[in-house]
Fold this protein.
Amino acid sequence: MPTNAGYYHAAYLAAAAIYLVYAGTLLWRARRVHARVVAQRRTV
Amino acid sequence: MSATNTENLRPVIPAASDPLLLAASAAVAAVFVRAVRFTPVELRQGPAQKIFYVHAPAAWVAFLAFSVVALAGVLYLWLRDPRLDRIAESSAEVGLVFNTVVLVTGPLWAKPVWGTWWTWDARLTLTLFLWLIYLGYVVLRGAIDDREMRARYASVLGVLGALLIPFIHLSVYLFRTLHPQPIVLKPSAPSLPGEMLTTLLLSFLAFTLLYIALVRSRYRLATLYLALEQERRV
């Protein structure tokens, strides 16, 4: 049997990193936009 | 305070307390553990074959996501309901993430099995084109300020982009390719041993749940962007 476990470890880590980074950007953008909406309302 | 329809703005829900996103993340983590620890290794390809349990479900979800973009786009062009545009926008961005996973994990599987990171065969090339089209979709949305024009143009591009999906699925039958033919999504019964098939089906479920959770979060963000746009116009 070929010994190539490193490739699948790399693939699983890459997939997890991509999802986590994306979920993180969703939260970061939501907080930023929410803060801007609230600030905008205070000025009106 | 301005009188807009966004006065009942929902507070931002931290990812750590979003039950659906938590459940989806836990499901994907559980599938990863099952694939790594409790699913047999394929003898010919070795452990690298386990990339299958990430690669194929990510491809399925990317196709699902872009199909939702196309469906929401058609319905938007017909009904002009802005919620449909927000669904399309959300699904396109999440689909792009899953398509990125396909394009990253594919070469990591190809190198040990085919001996090359990339080959310009029909399925790989069309999958890259699909990614580029929906990257263009996201860029297009960011470049147009007028909400209606943005929704209309994006809907048309979203529908046209999804026309590639059946070609990608059928490309292994239509062209000479290194890519294997479907072993699950085909007219006859799946040709996988039971334990591997169970892991794959659980992976499809977990990834689909993650897609739903991410689209839900992205839809909330799109609603927040809309609220910001409306506040600026007041």
Summary: Chain A has one helix and no strands. The mean pLDDT of chain A is 91. Chain A touches chain B at residues 1-5, 7-8, 10-12, 14-16, 18-19, 22-24, 26-27, 29-31, 33-34, 36-38, 40-41, 44 (CB under 8 Å).
